[in-house]
Amino acid sequence: MARIPAEENGAEKFPKQTTFNLGDLVTDRTKILTDAERVQLEEQNKRMVTDFQAQKLEREARKHWDLFYKRNETRFFKDRHWTTREFTELLSARCPAVVDDDPLETDGQPPNTTKTLLEIGCGVGNLIFPLIEEGHRNFFIYACDLSPRAVELVRKHNLYDDRYMSAFACDITTDEVFGTLTEHSLDIATLIFVLSAIHPDKFRVTLSNIYRLMKPGGVVLFRDYGRYDMAQLRFKPGHKIADNFYMRQDGTRSYYFAEDEVSALFRDVGFEVLVNSYIHRRTINPKENIDVPRIFVQGKFRKPD
């Protein structure tokens, strides 16, 4: 595993992402808050989500996501055409768990496929269907989501085809996924804006389950909200559940990650860190007069051979 020498504070450093958007800042340093931003965060502590509310949100997580997709159906999230640009492992070429263009022998491997891919937290298919539209059809694609309603919308999509994909509902924080997939069966898994929706107490078991699913050499592609992202700073009192963990108006939740925290989470369950960093990016829409600074954590994590 390639590493960048540690800085004076002793923190271990890893290779950075390559920038893909003009103006991106790729760094391992956490954003330095202004005085005004510090005040915003302190204000959030004046009224926290009660323990009773927090436990109820956890119990009803599936219900809140089902209601989200009942309201929004396929209209909320944009198709993720950027994924093949920033995660070239998704292109129709070999991946780390493929040798001489032949898939590794694995029980449960679908026939006549080069790779197996699982999109965790697939929503309505905003990652998998752009892949298919762009001609990347040498995957057998699995797609799972906590929300049965989201999975139903995936199955109704005109590009859904049982011959090379399988969508199913499951709670990735439990053993439910192993009712559909066997251990050591995946070449690639995507975890894009998903881990942040899970309670921090369940991060480790979630990543442990994913580790069990991956073939030796398999890679997890990760992107999620970064520490002190604009969305975190904008929360008002009454929405904070715990440090860096918040409740949205619709009952769904969001966690904001530090770059070194993500590396540690993956390494603790056995993954190697291939690359991991913050990406500072501006979301610009001149027509709507939008210019918003965003912070993400993006990385790639490999199960050792």
Automatic annotation (TrEMBL):
GO biological process: what's one of them? methylation
Give its E.C. classification number.
2.1.1.-
Domain of life, per the record?
Answer: Eukaryota
The family database entries (InterPro entries) matched by this protein are listed as: METTL2/6/8-like, SAM-dependent_MTases_sf
Alphabetically sorted, this entry's keywords are: Methyltransferase, Transferase
Q: What class of enzyme is it?
A: transferase
Answer yes or no on keyword Transferase.
yes
Coiled-coil residue spans:
none
Is Transferase tagged as a keyword? yes
Please list the GO terms describing molecular function: RNA methyltransferase activity; S-adenosylmethionine-dependent methyltransferase activity
Q: Which family does it belong to?
A: Belongs to the methyltransferase superfamily. METL family.
Please explain the role this protein plays, according to its UniProt record: S-adenosyl-L-methionine-dependent methyltransferase.
Q: What protein name applies here?
A: tRNA N(3)-methylcytidine methyltransferase
